[in-house]
Here is the input.
Amino acid sequence: MNASTATPLIAAKARALSGRVAVPGDKSVSHRALIFGALAVGTTRVTGLLEGEDVLNTARALRRLGVPIERGADGVWTVHGVGVGGLAEPDAVLDLGNSGTGARLLMGLVATHPFISFFTGDESLCRRPMARVTEPLTAMGARFVARDGSRLPLAVIGAKEPLPIEYRLPVPSAQVKSAILLAGLSAPGATSIIEPEPTRNHTENMLRHFGATVAVADGTDGRRITVTGEPELVASDLTVPGDPSSAAFPLVAALVVPGSQLTLPNIGLNPLRTGLFETLAEMGADITYENRRVEGGEPIADIVVRAGALNGVTVPAERAPRMIDEYPILAVAAAFAQGRTAMHGLKELRVKESDRLAATATGLAASGVTVAVEGDSLIVHGTGKPPAGGAAIAAKLDHRIAMSFLVMGMAAQQATRIDDGATIETSFPGFAALMNGAGATVRPA
Ligand code: S3P
Here is the structure.
Protein backbone atom coordinates (compact mmCIF):
# COMPACT_ATOMS: atom_id res chain seq x y z
CA MET A 1 0.00 0.00 0.00
CA ASN A 2 1.46 3.41 -0.85
CA ALA A 3 0.40 6.99 -0.31
CA SER A 4 -1.47 7.16 -3.63
CA THR A 5 -3.87 4.38 -2.57
CA ALA A 6 -4.41 5.65 0.99
CA THR A 7 -8.06 6.08 1.92
CA PRO A 8 -8.43 8.51 4.85
CA LEU A 9 -11.55 7.93 6.96
CA ILE A 10 -13.44 9.91 9.60
CA ALA A 11 -15.61 8.38 12.32
CA ALA A 12 -18.05 10.80 13.95
CA LYS A 13 -20.38 10.24 16.89
CA ALA A 14 -22.66 7.28 16.16
CA ARG A 15 -26.32 6.99 17.05
CA ALA A 16 -27.16 4.00 19.30
CA LEU A 17 -25.84 0.90 17.50
CA SER A 18 -28.36 -1.88 16.94
CA GLY A 19 -29.01 -5.06 14.99
CA ARG A 20 -26.88 -8.01 13.92
CA VAL A 21 -23.29 -7.50 12.85
CA ALA A 22 -21.84 -10.57 11.11
CA VAL A 23 -18.06 -10.33 11.40
CA PRO A 24 -15.88 -12.13 8.83
CA GLY A 25 -14.16 -15.48 9.31
CA ASP A 26 -11.30 -16.02 11.74
CA LYS A 27 -7.98 -14.94 10.26
CA SER A 28 -5.87 -17.55 12.09
CA VAL A 29 -8.23 -20.39 11.19
CA SER A 30 -8.53 -19.21 7.57
CA HIS A 31 -4.76 -19.23 6.92
CA ARG A 32 -4.54 -22.70 8.44
CA ALA A 33 -7.58 -24.06 6.56
CA LEU A 34 -5.87 -23.23 3.25
CA ILE A 35 -2.47 -24.52 4.36
CA PHE A 36 -3.72 -27.83 5.77
CA GLY A 37 -6.09 -28.27 2.83
CA ALA A 38 -3.00 -27.90 0.62
CA LEU A 39 -1.15 -30.63 2.54
CA ALA A 40 -4.00 -33.12 2.60
CA VAL A 41 -4.69 -35.76 0.01
CA GLY A 42 -7.98 -34.94 -1.70
CA THR A 43 -10.27 -31.94 -1.94
CA THR A 44 -11.07 -29.72 1.05
CA ARG A 45 -14.02 -27.31 0.93
CA VAL A 46 -13.81 -24.30 3.25
CA THR A 47 -16.95 -22.34 4.16
CA GLY A 48 -16.76 -18.88 5.74
CA LEU A 49 -13.12 -18.24 4.79
CA LEU A 50 -11.94 -14.72 5.62
CA GLU A 51 -11.57 -13.00 2.24
CA GLY A 52 -9.20 -10.36 3.62
CA GLU A 53 -5.94 -9.44 1.91
CA ASP A 54 -3.84 -11.43 4.42
CA VAL A 55 -5.60 -14.70 3.65
CA LEU A 56 -5.85 -13.97 -0.09
CA ASN A 57 -2.05 -13.56 -0.11
CA THR A 58 -1.65 -16.97 1.53
CA ALA A 59 -3.94 -18.46 -1.15
CA ARG A 60 -1.82 -16.80 -3.90
CA ALA A 61 1.40 -18.11 -2.33
CA LEU A 62 0.03 -21.65 -2.07
CA ARG A 63 -0.99 -21.52 -5.74
CA ARG A 64 2.61 -20.54 -6.57
CA LEU A 65 3.68 -23.62 -4.61
CA GLY A 66 1.61 -25.76 -6.96
CA VAL A 67 -1.68 -26.06 -5.05
CA PRO A 68 -4.86 -25.48 -7.08
CA ILE A 69 -7.26 -23.29 -5.04
CA GLU A 70 -10.57 -21.87 -6.29
CA ARG A 71 -13.41 -19.78 -4.93
CA GLY A 72 -16.88 -20.95 -5.95
CA ALA A 73 -19.68 -18.55 -6.84
CA ASP A 74 -21.30 -19.59 -3.54
CA GLY A 75 -18.29 -18.25 -1.61
CA VAL A 76 -17.03 -21.74 -0.70
CA TRP A 77 -13.30 -22.24 -1.31
CA THR A 78 -11.93 -25.49 -2.70
CA VAL A 79 -8.35 -26.60 -2.06
CA HIS A 80 -6.97 -29.51 -4.10
CA GLY A 81 -4.36 -30.87 -1.71
CA VAL A 82 -1.01 -32.16 -2.96
CA GLY A 83 -0.12 -34.22 0.13
CA VAL A 84 2.59 -33.69 2.77
CA GLY A 85 5.91 -33.00 1.00
CA GLY A 86 4.17 -32.48 -2.35
CA LEU A 87 4.73 -28.74 -2.86
CA ALA A 88 6.61 -27.51 -5.94
CA GLU A 89 9.36 -24.87 -6.17
CA PRO A 90 7.67 -21.50 -6.74
CA ASP A 91 8.57 -19.70 -9.97
CA ALA A 92 8.06 -16.24 -8.47
CA VAL A 93 8.57 -14.39 -5.20
CA LEU A 94 5.99 -15.18 -2.53
CA ASP A 95 4.55 -11.82 -1.44
CA LEU A 96 2.66 -12.11 1.84
CA GLY A 97 1.68 -8.44 1.94
CA ASN A 98 0.99 -7.36 5.53
CA SER A 99 0.71 -10.83 7.05
CA GLY A 100 3.13 -12.10 9.68
CA THR A 101 1.05 -15.26 10.01
CA GLY A 102 1.13 -16.01 6.28
CA ALA A 103 4.88 -15.34 6.04
CA ARG A 104 5.96 -17.26 9.13
CA LEU A 105 3.72 -20.29 8.63
CA LEU A 106 4.69 -20.66 4.98
CA MET A 107 8.39 -20.20 5.80
CA GLY A 108 8.01 -23.15 8.16
CA LEU A 109 6.23 -25.17 5.52
CA VAL A 110 8.83 -24.68 2.78
CA ALA A 111 11.82 -24.99 5.16
CA THR A 112 11.58 -28.78 4.94
CA HIS A 113 10.93 -28.97 1.18
CA PRO A 114 14.05 -29.49 -0.99
CA PHE A 115 13.76 -26.28 -3.04
CA ILE A 116 14.42 -22.56 -2.90
CA SER A 117 11.77 -19.93 -2.30
CA PHE A 118 11.82 -16.16 -1.91
CA PHE A 119 9.60 -14.22 0.51
CA THR A 120 8.68 -10.56 0.67
CA GLY A 121 5.94 -8.36 2.08
CA ASP A 122 4.85 -4.76 2.53
CA GLU A 123 6.79 -2.09 4.43
CA SER A 124 5.30 -3.22 7.74
CA LEU A 125 6.07 -6.93 7.25
CA CYS A 126 9.61 -6.17 6.05
CA ARG A 127 10.27 -4.44 9.39
CA ARG A 128 9.15 -7.41 11.51
CA PRO A 129 11.58 -9.88 13.16
CA MET A 130 11.97 -13.25 11.46
CA ALA A 131 14.86 -14.69 13.52
CA ARG A 132 12.23 -16.20 15.81
CA VAL A 133 11.39 -18.62 12.97
CA THR A 134 14.65 -18.79 11.02
CA GLU A 135 16.63 -19.96 14.09
CA PRO A 136 14.61 -23.11 14.87
CA LEU A 137 14.08 -23.81 11.16
CA THR A 138 17.86 -23.63 10.64
CA ALA A 139 18.19 -26.32 13.32
CA MET A 140 15.83 -28.42 11.18
CA GLY A 141 18.22 -28.15 8.23
CA ALA A 142 16.96 -25.11 6.29
CA ARG A 143 19.18 -22.18 5.32
CA PHE A 144 18.16 -18.53 5.04
CA VAL A 145 19.63 -15.51 3.32
CA ALA A 146 17.88 -12.49 4.78
CA ARG A 147 18.12 -8.73 4.57
CA ASP A 148 19.55 -7.24 7.73
CA GLY A 149 20.23 -10.77 9.02
CA SER A 150 16.64 -11.78 9.65
CA ARG A 151 14.16 -9.57 7.83
CA LEU A 152 12.17 -9.89 4.63
CA PRO A 153 12.90 -10.02 1.74
CA LEU A 154 14.60 -13.35 2.35
CA ALA A 155 15.42 -16.60 0.58
CA VAL A 156 14.72 -20.02 2.06
CA ILE A 157 16.88 -22.94 0.97
CA GLY A 158 14.78 -25.87 2.09
CA ALA A 159 16.34 -28.88 3.82
CA LYS A 160 16.97 -31.93 1.65
CA GLU A 161 17.13 -34.12 4.74
CA PRO A 162 14.98 -32.42 7.38
CA LEU A 163 15.66 -33.07 11.06
CA PRO A 164 12.98 -33.18 13.75
CA ILE A 165 13.72 -30.93 16.74
CA GLU A 166 12.61 -30.29 20.27
CA TYR A 167 12.24 -26.55 20.79
CA ARG A 168 11.33 -24.40 23.75
CA LEU A 169 9.59 -21.21 22.57
CA PRO A 170 11.56 -18.16 23.75
CA VAL A 171 8.58 -15.89 22.94
CA PRO A 172 4.91 -16.81 23.40
CA SER A 173 4.05 -17.01 19.69
CA ALA A 174 1.55 -19.24 17.94
CA GLN A 175 3.15 -18.28 14.64
CA VAL A 176 6.53 -19.65 15.70
CA LYS A 177 4.96 -22.79 17.16
CA SER A 178 2.97 -23.32 13.96
CA ALA A 179 5.96 -22.73 11.66
CA ILE A 180 7.90 -25.48 13.47
CA LEU A 181 4.97 -27.90 13.52
CA LEU A 182 4.45 -27.37 9.79
CA ALA A 183 8.15 -27.95 9.14
CA GLY A 184 7.96 -31.05 11.33
CA LEU A 185 5.35 -32.60 9.04
CA SER A 186 8.06 -33.23 6.43
CA ALA A 187 10.68 -34.42 8.93
CA PRO A 188 10.96 -38.05 10.05
CA GLY A 189 10.02 -38.80 13.67
CA ALA A 190 8.71 -36.54 16.41
CA THR A 191 8.98 -32.73 16.46
CA SER A 192 8.19 -31.19 19.86
CA ILE A 193 7.53 -27.64 21.03
CA ILE A 194 7.46 -26.61 24.66
CA GLU A 195 5.49 -23.44 25.28
CA PRO A 196 5.88 -21.90 28.74
CA GLU A 197 2.66 -19.91 28.17
CA PRO A 198 -0.07 -21.53 26.06
CA THR A 199 -0.83 -19.70 22.80
CA ARG A 200 -3.71 -20.18 20.35
CA ASN A 201 -3.93 -23.86 19.38
CA HIS A 202 -5.66 -23.73 15.99
CA THR A 203 -2.73 -25.52 14.33
CA GLU A 204 -2.96 -28.43 16.77
CA ASN A 205 -6.76 -28.59 16.34
CA MET A 206 -6.47 -28.52 12.59
CA LEU A 207 -3.72 -31.16 12.49
CA ARG A 208 -6.11 -33.49 14.30
CA HIS A 209 -8.99 -32.48 12.04
CA PHE A 210 -6.90 -33.63 9.06
CA GLY A 211 -5.86 -36.88 10.73
CA ALA A 212 -2.34 -36.21 12.07
CA THR A 213 -1.13 -37.54 15.40
CA VAL A 214 -0.56 -34.70 17.88
CA ALA A 215 0.20 -35.22 21.56
CA VAL A 216 -0.31 -32.37 24.05
CA ALA A 217 0.89 -32.70 27.65
CA ASP A 218 1.01 -30.08 30.41
CA GLY A 219 4.17 -30.27 32.53
CA THR A 220 5.95 -28.13 35.08
CA ASP A 221 7.98 -26.39 32.37
CA GLY A 222 4.96 -25.67 30.17
CA ARG A 223 2.87 -27.34 27.51
CA ARG A 224 4.60 -29.89 25.28
CA ILE A 225 3.14 -30.37 21.79
CA THR A 226 4.48 -33.22 19.68
CA VAL A 227 3.64 -33.98 16.07
CA THR A 228 4.63 -37.19 14.32
CA GLY A 229 6.24 -36.41 10.98
CA GLU A 230 5.40 -37.65 7.49
CA PRO A 231 1.71 -38.36 8.17
CA GLU A 232 -0.87 -38.76 5.44
CA LEU A 233 -3.31 -35.91 5.95
CA VAL A 234 -6.80 -36.58 4.65
CA ALA A 235 -8.90 -33.85 3.05
CA SER A 236 -11.70 -32.73 5.34
CA ASP A 237 -14.26 -29.94 4.85
CA LEU A 238 -14.50 -27.21 7.44
CA THR A 239 -16.42 -24.09 8.44
CA VAL A 240 -14.49 -21.09 9.74
CA PRO A 241 -16.00 -19.37 12.82
CA GLY A 242 -16.36 -15.57 13.06
CA ASP A 243 -13.13 -13.95 14.26
CA PRO A 244 -13.22 -12.98 17.96
CA SER A 245 -10.41 -10.50 17.27
CA SER A 246 -12.60 -8.79 14.64
CA ALA A 247 -15.72 -9.06 16.84
CA ALA A 248 -13.79 -7.01 19.41
CA PHE A 249 -14.35 -3.79 17.42
CA PRO A 250 -18.17 -3.78 17.12
CA LEU A 251 -18.30 -5.24 20.63
CA VAL A 252 -16.41 -2.36 22.22
CA ALA A 253 -18.25 0.13 19.99
CA ALA A 254 -21.56 -1.18 21.37
CA LEU A 255 -20.25 -0.88 24.94
CA VAL A 256 -19.24 2.77 24.60
CA VAL A 257 -21.91 4.23 22.28
CA PRO A 258 -24.82 4.98 24.68
CA GLY A 259 -28.05 3.02 24.16
CA SER A 260 -26.46 0.38 21.90
CA GLN A 261 -27.33 -3.28 21.65
CA LEU A 262 -25.69 -5.57 19.08
CA THR A 263 -25.80 -9.27 18.29
CA LEU A 264 -22.61 -10.74 16.84
CA PRO A 265 -23.44 -14.20 15.45
CA ASN A 266 -21.11 -17.25 15.18
CA ILE A 267 -18.09 -15.94 17.06
CA GLY A 268 -15.24 -18.37 17.80
CA LEU A 269 -14.69 -18.74 21.55
CA ASN A 270 -11.56 -20.87 21.67
CA PRO A 271 -10.42 -20.38 25.30
CA LEU A 272 -6.96 -19.35 24.08
CA ARG A 273 -8.57 -16.35 22.31
CA THR A 274 -11.05 -15.04 24.89
CA GLY A 275 -8.87 -12.88 27.18
CA LEU A 276 -10.60 -9.68 26.00
CA PHE A 277 -14.07 -11.01 26.78
CA GLU A 278 -12.97 -12.01 30.31
CA THR A 279 -11.37 -8.60 30.85
CA LEU A 280 -14.45 -6.71 29.67
CA ALA A 281 -16.63 -8.83 31.98
CA GLU A 282 -14.35 -7.83 34.88
CA MET A 283 -14.84 -4.20 33.83
CA GLY A 284 -18.60 -4.66 34.21
CA ALA A 285 -19.53 -5.06 30.54
CA ASP A 286 -22.96 -6.48 29.73
CA ILE A 287 -22.04 -9.37 27.39
CA THR A 288 -24.03 -12.58 27.06
CA TYR A 289 -23.42 -15.72 25.02
CA GLU A 290 -26.33 -17.43 23.29
CA ASN A 291 -26.66 -20.59 21.27
CA ARG A 292 -23.32 -22.04 22.40
CA ARG A 293 -22.18 -24.92 20.17
CA VAL A 294 -19.08 -26.64 18.80
CA GLU A 295 -18.29 -26.54 15.08
CA GLY A 296 -15.20 -28.09 13.49
CA GLY A 297 -13.68 -28.62 16.95
CA GLU A 298 -13.97 -24.94 17.94
CA PRO A 299 -16.54 -23.61 20.47
CA ILE A 300 -18.70 -20.80 19.07
CA ALA A 301 -21.65 -18.68 20.24
CA ASP A 302 -23.74 -15.65 19.33
CA ILE A 303 -22.62 -12.68 21.44
CA VAL A 304 -25.14 -10.10 22.65
CA VAL A 305 -23.65 -6.86 23.97
CA ARG A 306 -25.33 -3.83 25.54
CA ALA A 307 -23.88 -0.39 26.30
CA GLY A 308 -23.15 0.44 29.94
CA ALA A 309 -20.68 1.84 32.43
CA LEU A 310 -17.20 0.25 32.62
CA ASN A 311 -14.67 0.29 35.46
CA GLY A 312 -10.87 0.24 35.25
CA VAL A 313 -9.12 -3.07 35.99
CA THR A 314 -5.66 -4.62 36.12
CA VAL A 315 -4.96 -7.06 33.29
CA PRO A 316 -2.25 -9.54 34.32
CA ALA A 317 0.69 -10.32 32.03
CA GLU A 318 -0.24 -14.05 31.97
CA ARG A 319 -3.38 -13.18 30.03
CA ALA A 320 -1.48 -11.48 27.19
CA PRO A 321 -1.11 -14.51 24.87
CA ARG A 322 -4.89 -15.07 25.03
CA MET A 323 -5.70 -11.52 23.91
CA ILE A 324 -2.53 -10.35 22.20
CA ASP A 325 -4.32 -8.65 19.28
CA GLU A 326 -6.95 -6.98 21.47
CA TYR A 327 -4.95 -4.45 23.51
CA PRO A 328 -5.49 -1.43 21.22
CA ILE A 329 -9.28 -1.83 21.36
CA LEU A 330 -9.20 -2.69 25.08
CA ALA A 331 -7.26 0.54 25.64
CA VAL A 332 -10.03 2.43 23.82
CA ALA A 333 -12.63 0.78 26.11
CA ALA A 334 -10.44 1.72 29.11
CA ALA A 335 -10.47 5.36 27.96
CA PHE A 336 -14.28 5.37 28.46
CA ALA A 337 -14.15 3.49 31.79
CA GLN A 338 -14.12 5.00 35.26
CA GLY A 339 -10.66 4.74 36.82
CA ARG A 340 -7.27 3.24 36.08
CA THR A 341 -6.72 0.29 33.75
CA ALA A 342 -3.26 -1.27 33.84
CA MET A 343 -2.30 -3.74 31.09
CA HIS A 344 0.90 -5.66 31.78
CA GLY A 345 3.22 -7.89 29.74
CA LEU A 346 2.87 -6.09 26.39
CA LYS A 347 6.41 -6.54 25.01
CA GLU A 348 5.18 -8.43 21.92
CA LEU A 349 2.96 -5.49 20.95
CA ARG A 350 6.09 -3.67 19.82
CA VAL A 351 6.65 -6.14 16.95
CA LYS A 352 3.13 -6.42 15.51
CA GLU A 353 1.99 -4.80 12.24
CA SER A 354 3.19 -1.57 13.92
CA ASP A 355 4.65 -0.81 17.35
CA ARG A 356 1.16 -1.10 18.84
CA LEU A 357 2.19 -0.05 22.31
CA ALA A 358 3.48 3.28 21.00
CA ALA A 359 0.68 3.73 18.43
CA THR A 360 -2.04 3.08 21.02
CA ALA A 361 -0.52 5.42 23.62
CA THR A 362 0.10 8.18 21.05
CA GLY A 363 -3.44 7.93 19.68
CA LEU A 364 -5.04 7.99 23.13
CA ALA A 365 -2.97 10.99 24.21
CA ALA A 366 -3.97 12.81 21.00
CA SER A 367 -7.61 12.01 21.89
CA GLY A 368 -7.29 13.77 25.26
CA VAL A 369 -6.86 10.60 27.35
CA THR A 370 -4.39 10.39 30.25
CA VAL A 371 -2.11 7.49 29.32
CA ALA A 372 1.38 6.22 30.16
CA VAL A 373 3.73 3.51 28.94
CA GLU A 374 5.73 2.11 31.86
CA GLY A 375 8.18 -0.53 30.63
CA ASP A 376 6.00 -3.19 29.00
CA SER A 377 2.80 -1.89 30.64
CA LEU A 378 0.15 0.46 29.34
CA ILE A 379 -1.75 2.53 31.90
CA VAL A 380 -4.97 4.31 30.91
CA HIS A 381 -6.86 6.67 33.21
CA GLY A 382 -10.55 6.94 32.33
CA THR A 383 -12.96 9.48 33.77
CA GLY A 384 -16.14 7.53 33.03
CA LYS A 385 -17.00 10.18 30.42
CA PRO A 386 -16.31 10.24 26.67
CA PRO A 387 -12.79 11.52 25.91
CA ALA A 388 -12.39 14.72 23.86
CA GLY A 389 -11.41 12.78 20.71
CA GLY A 390 -10.69 14.92 17.66
CA ALA A 391 -7.38 13.18 16.91
CA ALA A 392 -5.70 12.61 13.54
CA ILE A 393 -4.29 9.07 13.72
CA ALA A 394 -1.51 7.56 11.60
CA ALA A 395 -2.61 3.95 10.99
CA LYS A 396 0.95 2.81 10.09
CA LEU A 397 -0.28 -0.09 7.92
CA ASP A 398 -1.92 -1.52 11.04
CA HIS A 399 -5.55 -2.61 10.63
CA ARG A 400 -6.16 -2.91 14.36
CA ILE A 401 -4.89 0.59 15.12
CA ALA A 402 -7.14 1.92 12.32
CA MET A 403 -10.28 0.15 13.60
CA SER A 404 -9.58 0.92 17.28
CA PHE A 405 -9.46 4.65 16.66
CA LEU A 406 -12.50 4.60 14.38
CA VAL A 407 -14.35 3.08 17.36
CA MET A 408 -12.97 5.92 19.51
CA GLY A 409 -14.47 8.37 16.99
CA MET A 410 -17.90 6.69 17.24
CA ALA A 411 -18.26 7.68 20.90
CA ALA A 412 -15.78 10.49 21.69
CA GLN A 413 -16.89 14.14 21.83
CA GLN A 414 -15.15 14.99 18.54
CA ALA A 415 -14.70 12.92 15.37
CA THR A 416 -11.50 10.91 14.78
CA ARG A 417 -9.63 10.88 11.48
CA ILE A 418 -7.32 8.08 10.37
CA ASP A 419 -4.89 8.65 7.51
CA ASP A 420 -5.45 5.29 5.81
CA GLY A 421 -8.37 2.90 6.14
CA ALA A 422 -7.18 0.67 3.27
CA THR A 423 -5.19 -1.39 5.77
CA ILE A 424 -8.47 -2.62 7.31
CA GLU A 425 -8.92 -4.82 4.20
CA THR A 426 -6.24 -7.18 5.56
CA SER A 427 -8.51 -8.62 8.26
CA PHE A 428 -11.97 -7.02 8.19
CA PRO A 429 -13.16 -6.17 4.67
CA GLY A 430 -16.35 -4.10 4.78
CA PHE A 431 -15.80 -2.87 8.35
CA ALA A 432 -17.01 0.69 7.74
CA ALA A 433 -20.13 -0.37 5.80
CA LEU A 434 -21.03 -2.99 8.40
CA MET A 435 -20.69 -0.49 11.26
CA ASN A 436 -22.61 2.16 9.32
CA GLY A 437 -25.40 -0.37 8.80
CA ALA A 438 -25.65 -0.67 12.59
CA GLY A 439 -25.78 3.12 13.16
CA ALA A 440 -22.19 4.38 12.91
CA THR A 441 -20.99 7.28 10.76
CA VAL A 442 -17.69 6.32 9.14
CA ARG A 443 -17.03 8.18 5.91
CA PRO A 444 -14.18 9.04 3.56
CA ALA A 445 -12.26 12.07 4.87
C1 S3P B 1 -1.45 -15.47 15.08
C2 S3P B 1 -0.65 -15.37 16.19
C3 S3P B 1 -0.38 -14.09 16.87
C4 S3P B 1 -1.37 -13.00 16.46
C5 S3P B 1 -1.62 -12.97 14.98
C6 S3P B 1 -2.16 -14.30 14.51
C7 S3P B 1 -1.64 -16.79 14.45
O1 S3P B 1 0.92 -13.66 16.52
O2 S3P B 1 -0.88 -11.73 16.88
O3 S3P B 1 -2.55 -11.95 14.64
O4 S3P B 1 -2.55 -16.94 13.61
O5 S3P B 1 -0.86 -17.71 14.78
P1 S3P B 1 2.23 -14.15 17.33
O6 S3P B 1 2.44 -15.57 17.07
O7 S3P B 1 3.34 -13.30 16.76
O8 S3P B 1 1.94 -13.83 18.77
